[in-house]
Each structure stands twice: as structure tokens, then as C-alpha cells.
Amino acid sequence: MNIASSAALPALLLIAALAAPVTLVVGRRNPRRAASAAQVAAGAALAAALWNIAGHGGSVDLPWLPTWGATLSFTFDGISAVYTLLASGIGLAVFIYAGRYLPLHLHHTHRPVSEATSFFALLTLFMGAMIGLATARDLLLLFIFWDLTAVASYGLIGFDHTEAARRGSLMALLVTVSSALLLLVGILLLDLTYGTFDMAELARRATPGTELSVAVALMAIAALAKSAQVPFHFWLPRAMAAPTPVSAYLHSAAMVAAGVFLLGRIYPLIERAPEIQRALVVVGVASMATGGALALVKRELKAILAYSTIGQYGYVVVMLGLGGPTGVGGAAFYVIAHAIAKSALFLTAGAVTEATGRRSLDDLGGLARPLPALAVGSGLAAAALAALPLTIGFFKDEFFFEAAHHDGPVMTVIAALGAALTFAYMARFWGRIFLGRLRRPAAVLPTAMVAPIGALGSLAVLGGVAPAPVAALASAAGAASLQAPVDLHPGYRLVLNAPNVMALAAWGIGAALVAALPWWRGLPLALAAAGDRIGPERWYRSTLDALDRLSDWIHDLEVRDLRSRVASVLVPAGVLVAAAVLATPSDRAFLAGSFQAGDLVVGLLLAIACASGVAAARQRNHVAMTLLLSGVGYSLAVVYAAFGAPDVTLVAVLMETLFALLFLTTLSALPQSLRERLRRRPIESARRRRNVIYATVAGAAAFITVWGILSKPAAFDSVAARQIALTPSAHAKAVVTAILADFRGLDTMGEITVIGVALLGLAALLTRRRQT
Amino acid sequence: MITALTRTVAKLLFLPSLMIAVATLVKGYADVGDGFTAGVIAGLAVLLQVIVLGRDEVERMLPLRWAPRLAFAGIALALLDALAPLAFGQPVMTHLPPANVKPIHLGSLELLSAVVFDVGVFLLVFGFSVAAIDLLGRASPDRLP
After folding, report:
1. How far is B139 from chain A (nearest CA, A)?
2. How far apart are CA A117 and CA A540, in angstroms?
3. Which CB contacts under 8 angstroms, 24+ apart, belong to B101-105?
4. Is the dihedral of CA A215, A217, A221, A223 positive or negative?
């Protein structure tokens, strides 16, 4: 085992792994302590992350699946630093807030306090998964953490168990997990092409080519779906059914950030697939436009923030698509700035709803007077998102403008318009809540719900006054992506350079947009309506409905009665056999041997078996049918004996007897009158025809299979000979027993387990019937 | 048609059938048959009694209701035998004694850990065949309240 150079990374991973179990155990004892456990875990993870940053990371390598070339390898680099800080730092603020929010929320919804345990356990599980994701160097490992975040988010989004919550969580799960399959395919494709799952190794080995482009495209689709980019964006507004702390954490700093994290992680590969990188710009711009325009017209607080998130991650995707030190390093800076501001705004939305009981902009206004601290804290966060000077957000836009200006005039205009949209919807969001006439009285909020917002807001200002530490973090992340030094130098320059002009233009256009909103709000509303009618969410629903109908149809077909259930096994099997026969060369595959005098006994026995089978098919009396079928079995058992297979004969005789008993007892469990009625009921001709077809297909398939196998008996000799040769070394004289108990013992284990399960099922069915 | 003759013959056959089952089981490694066939033979021996004498009378002699428990004890025994080597750092289903070591003899009987697995299979099949038919028989309509 190679443990890392320093203890910092193992400590971080240990905290990440233990956070959820410890929270669960503490919460089981006392649900009120679950929040504290989660807060301690987040605090410890934050401390460990800072320790790693101070100690310049390191790596951990543990053997995992050596034959597949997969290892449990973790590295703490610049990208890991950014995302672990977000997961633990924003996590800590959100967990503190949730410690006060959740009891109130559970109280409002009339649910027991004990449910807090699973809530905080899921939150810490999510944090652990994010830390694992951010530090994983092995791509298979990364995929596992990727899916783990989706699973945790499913539980968190659906925490309220309302119809909307259930639909929203299922949608988030299906969109992110089905796209995650593409990520897995991409990872496997990379492994097949370059022979490694290790990201650092891949960055060295990958060369431009079709395989690389396909793999990168698949992985990018997964990343874009996770970051709620167009056309996968529809899951995010639906996920707003989650409790507010979940949205603040997952939908600003963690879950959606995982998508752009992945883009940053595989950036060395993206760079070598320029067509994919250019596609990122298109997707990003589309998301910017969709998210920004809809955020400007939506009324519900959290819906506005959800569309804003779609738009904001659109900027990040555009910057990664534009590339270069400013683009890639700036993207990391943007993620940090956005996470701080957006989580504070989500917490604000929750606090406002908690204080007033309202969640729509139309019912709100003038809250600055009763809730001044909240107004200031969220005002700072809103200013940061709107990129006003003296906030961290100013620099996120500065880098964005620089990268766009570097690309050309078209991107310059798009960038300025995008920033204008951000400014406009933030001004509308904050202004409509806190300014104007007071519409509803507001309750006093607990300090623990306002303080995290204030802290995040102050952080946004601190980053605007002294941006160097954040710039260093982002530079390190950019350097890890670009594999070249990145040096971001945010600072205020009072000159008329391109970024400053673009910023001024953005504020001006933004102010005009929000002032003129009543005159042009029809456009985005029409866009939203069109999106609802023909957009991707509609495709999602119709795909789901179609799958539902298909499954219903198959279910009805299969389980309508016993006959159709048997047919649903036998007919497809027969069709497969027919396909196999057609596909394989028939030359010497079906031989008819000669018939000698010594075969007379076997021939006679087989004739008896055939006669019993035909008679059973014509018989309507169930008891007689059972006995005739046993006749088939017994005569075949004697055939085995004639071929010198005593073991098989013994088993066949015993099983025939047991089955006959089982059939007869089952028949005796049916009332006499019912059996009589079944016997006399005429069979409709359509059903008779179907039965004949099923029986013919199944019988022909069995016949062809047996004939084909008997025509070349030598094919299976190798295994049999080996088993016979090995029998003495197992201290056995009977080969069959040695195979069952030793050579294929694991198969036997599986089979007897199946028998046990069948017994359980039988007992459950029959005892229930007796009770009712 | 159950007569005094069938009743007598059925009763007389019970112990010899069980003996044949046990013989099939312990001789499984040297001769025809194994735990599975032995289990079916033993199961049929009990079922013969149930059919001829009736469930109530057999229940007085034999604890039929224990059959499911017997089946699961068999699975547990087989699983134990399969997993026990793990405790000694050996792969699952490693049997004792190893290939080149002579097993201990008790008369003509050889002591093999594979037979323990076979006994597990025997108990499962025995328990299953009795329990399945017993359950089905008890579900017949004339027994319903």
C-alpha cells in the first residue's frame, strides 16, 4: 500500500467517508444532534481542505481492481482545492442555516423531528461524495462518486414527499444518471483506446482522433446534463421542490458545479477535440440566453434562482469553451464567486418565505425595513452576482469579458448582453423583495438563519476588496486544467479598456432592460410557453410515458394467465433457436444415424414417451393429464438407464415422482366443482390456434436443439474428460457428486438458494390465502 | 383406495426408506446418488406416510411443521461449509483434505468436508419436498375454515 506523502489528503478522505455514517449514528440517538454532527463534519472537512491547500496536496494510491487497471487513486490539485472548499465551506454555511430551518420546516409540514436525521445524513453523504469526486484521479472512481451525488440528491430533492418533490427528484435522477451512463461509456472508451483510467496518465497519452472526440463528447454531455445546460436544463427548476437548504447547497455550489468540475478535470482531453470545445460555447450561450431570459420573467423566488443558475453555469461553460488562461482560470474563479453569491441568495429565498409565508415576487416588497440584516447580506450577494465593483463578482465578469473580447466581436457583444441580463434579473429579484411598499408583515428570523447569509455576503465583498487568495485558488485550478501556468491578476484599473467598457455597457443595458420589462416581457414568456409545448421537458415526459406504456403492454401480455406466461418464455426461446439455426452453417449439423437391432428397446421406450405426450395433450381430465406426463418422464428415465447413466436415471425417477405428487396435491387444492367446470368448458378456436402455435414453436425448438447437440457429441468432451480425470483428487469415485459438491459447488450453492427462495414464496402465498 | 394392507406396508417402508436415503447420502462420493437424490428419497418416504395415513396421524409421529426450518438449516450448513475456508485465508469452497492428502477413514467411510456441503443439500431438498407438499395439502379447500 502506498499512502500519500502527507497525512492531509488521507485525513480529508477519512472525514468525507465518515461524515454520513457518523451523522446517522448520532441522529439515531438524538435527532436534534444530527445537525450538529453534520456541522462538525463540514467544519472538519473545511479544515482538512485548508490543510491540504497549505501543504500543497499530495496523493493517495490504494490497490482496487488490479486486473482491470483501476486503483483507488486520489490527488489533491488545484481543481480539487476549489471544489472541496466549495463542498465543505458552502456546506458549513448551509448546514448551520439548516440546523434552524429544518425543525421549523418539519413543524410546518407536521412531520416528526426524527426525519432530520436522514436529511442531514443525506446532506453529509452528498458532501462526502463531492469531496471524493473532486479528488479522484481514477476515472472509474470518479464515475462512482458522480453517481453517488445523484443518488444523494434524489433523496434530498424528494425529501418532502409531495407530488412535486417526487416528480422533481425522479426527473433529476433520471436526467443525471442516464447521462452518467454516457460518462461511463466515454471512460471505458478512453480505457480501451489508451489503456488507463488514470486522468494524469490520460492527459499524457491522449492524441487527437475520432476515439478521443467521441469519448470527450459523451463525457461532455454528462457534464452538461449535470450542470443543467440547455437542452437538459429542465430538471433544475423542477428540483426546486427541494427544501431551501438543499437548493442552496446542491443547486448553487455542489451538484450543478460537478458538471463544470468534470469539464475542468477532463480539460486536457477537451483541448484535443476542438470541435467539442467549440460546441461548448454554443451550448453555453444557449443556456445563458434561456436561463437569463426566464429568470427575468419568473415570479417564484426559487424558480428565478434556478433559471439564474442555468444561465450562470452557461457563462462558465462558455469560458471553458473559449479556453486560454483567462477562460479556464476565469471559469474556476466564476464558479467560486457564483457559488458564494448564489447560495446566499437561495438561503435568502428560504428566509423570506419563512418570515412571510410567501414565495412569489408578486406578494413581496419593502422587506428592507423589517429585515435590515437580511436585506444587507443578500444585497451584497446580489451585487456580487450582478458583478458590481467592490464585490468578487466584478472580477468574474472581468475575466469573462476578457476571454470573450479575446475571441472576437461576436462573443464580445454576446458577453455584454449576457451580463446585462444577469444585472437585470438580480436588480429585479432584490428590488422587488426588499424595496417598495411593505405588502406583508414579516416575522422575526432566528440569527442562525440570517448569519450565514451575512457571512456569505461579507465573503463576497472581501473577495472584491482582496481578490488575491481567490485568484490564487482559481489560478491553481486553471493550471491543473490547462497543464500550464495560469496567473490571474484581478484588480481595478480605471482605464477605458475592453472589459471595463463591456461592464459599463452591461450595467446600462441591464438597467434599461429591467426598466423596460413591462414592454418586452411577452417575448421571454412566449419563449417559455413554446419551451413547455415542444421543449425538451416535453420529450422527457413523452419518453417516460412511452416506456410506461411499453412496460404495461409487456406486463399484460406476460402475466394475463399461466399459459401466456409459459408462452412468453418458450416462444422467444424458440425464435432465438430458429435464428441460431439460420445463422450457423447446417452442413453436417443434423445427422440421422442408423437404426440397429440393439436400439429396439430404446426405440420402444421413446415411442411410449411420444404416445404419452400426445395423449396428455388430448386429455381434459387433470389427474389423467398429470399421470400421462409422468409416463413421459418415466419412460425417458429408462432411456437414460439404457445409455448407462444411473445417476441421471435415479434423479429423473425421483423427480418425476415428486412432481406427480406436487401436481396432484395442487389439483386437490382446487375445489372439485371448479375442476369439473374447467374440464367441461369448451376452448375457443382462437385460443386453440394460439396454443397450437406456441406448442409447435417450443416443441420444434427443443427438437432442433437436441438433434443438433446429439449430432456432434464430441463437442463437450474436453470439460467432461477433465472432470473425470480430476475426480480421484477430490477423493471421489462418483463423478456426478464430485461435480455437484466440489467442482461446480458454487453453482449448487446458488441453486439451493433458489429452492429456498421458492419455498419462502410458496409459504407466503399459501399461508396468506389461508388467512383471508 | 387405502386399505389396511397399504397402511401396514407404508408404515413398514418408512424406516428402510430413510435408511436408504442416509446410505445414498454418505456413500454419495463413492457410488450412485448424492445429497440431492438422498433428500428426495427421504422426502418421498415422509410423503408416503402423509398420503396413506393422513396428515394428522403423521403429525403425531413426526414434526412436519419443522420442515421449512430444516430446509433453511440446510442452506445455512452449505453456506457455512462454503465460506468457512475464508476464515483460514483459502478461497471459497476449498474442501478438506487437499488433493494429495489421504482422508481419515471410519471403517469404509471417508471423512470429507465436501460431504458436509452435501448434507446441507440433503437437508434443503428433504425439507423443501416435505414442506411444499404439506403446504399445498393444507391449502386444499376442504381444510379451509
Report:
1. 6
2. 33
3. B103/A731
4. positive
List chain A domain ranges: 295-520, 522-559, 560-716, 717-772
Q: Cα-Cα-Cα-Cα dihedral of A103, A106, A112, A113, to 10°?
A: -20
Q: Does B32 touch chain A (CB under 8 A)?
A: yes
Q: How far apart are CA A573 and CA A697, in angstroms?
A: 9
**Model confidence band, residue A713 (pLDDT cutoffs 50, 70, 90):** low
* Interchain pair A742, B114: CB under 8 A: yes
Q: Chain B contacts of A655, Cβ < 8 Å? A: 40
Nearest to A256 by CA among A331, A309, A321, A181: A309
The CA–CA distances, whole Å, from A123 to A99, A345, A358 equal 12, 19, 26
The angle formed by the CA atoms of residues A542, A176 and A552, to the nearest 5 degrees, is 35
Secondary structure element (H or E) that encloses residue A228, with its range: none
Contacts of A734 in chain B (CB under 8 A): 28-34
Instruction: pLDDT band for A714, please (50, 70, 90 cuts).
Output: low
d(CA A124, CA A91): 9
Establish if B122 touches chain A: CB-CB under 8 angstroms: no
The Cα A705–Cα A403 span in angstroms is 67
Please report the number of interchain residue pairs, chain A to chain B, with beta-carbon separation below 8 angstroms. Answer: 149
User: Per-residue confidence at B145, pLDDT binned at 50, 70, 90?
Assistant: very low
Q: Residue A325: what residue type? A: P
Interface-testing mutation among A654, A667, A726, A735, with chain B (most B C-beta atoms within 10 A): A654
Tell me the three state secondary structure of residue B90: coil
Instruction: Tell me the chain A residues in contact with residue B94 when contact means C-beta distances shorter than 8 Å.
Output: none
Tell me how many degrees the CA angle A501-A506-A512 measures, rounded to the nearest 5. Answer: 130
CB A277 within 8 A of CB A212: no
User: Could you tell me where the beta strands, DSSP code E, fall in A495-591?
Assistant: none
> Which residues touch A321 (CB under 8 Å, ≥6 apart)?
A277, A278, A279, A280, A281, A282, A283, A284, A327
Query: Residue A752 and residue B75: Cβ atoms within 8 Å?
Result: yes
Average pLDDT value for chain A:
89
pLDDT tier, A769 (very low <50, low <70, confident <90, very high otherwise) = low
Quick: pLDDT tens for A540-572: 999 999 999 999 998 888 877 778 888 888 888
Closest CA in chain A for residue B35: A737
Per-residue pLDDT at A771 exceeds 60: no
Helix, strand or coil for residue A595?
coil
Give backbone dihedrals phi and psi of A497, rounded to 5 degrees, phi first. -90, 175
Closest CB from B40, B47, B103 relative to A655:
B40
Chain A positions touching B122 (Cβ under 8 A) are none
SS3 category, B110:
strand
pLDDT value at A1 more than 50: no
Give me the amino acid identity at B36.
F
Contact at CB, A665 and B137, closer than 8 angstroms:
yes
B95 touches chain A (CB under 8 A): yes
Secondary structure element (H or E) that encloses residue A18, with its range: helix A8-29
Shortest distance, CA A22 to any CA of chain B (angstroms): 29
Q: Provide φ and ψ at B106, rounded to 5°.
A: -120, 95
- Top pLDDT among A479 and A56 is at A479
DSSP A443: P
A685: Cβ contacts below 8 Å, ≥ 6 apart: none
**Is-contact A470 A333, C-beta < 8 A?**
yes
Distance from CA of A766 to the nearest CA of B (A): 6
Question: Which residues of chain A are within 8 Å of residue B82 when distances are taken between CB atoms?
Answer: 745-746, 749
- One-letter amino acid for residue B24 of the chain: T
Tell me the ipTM for this assembly.
Answer: 0.91
CA pair distance A400, A326, nearest whole angstrom: 8
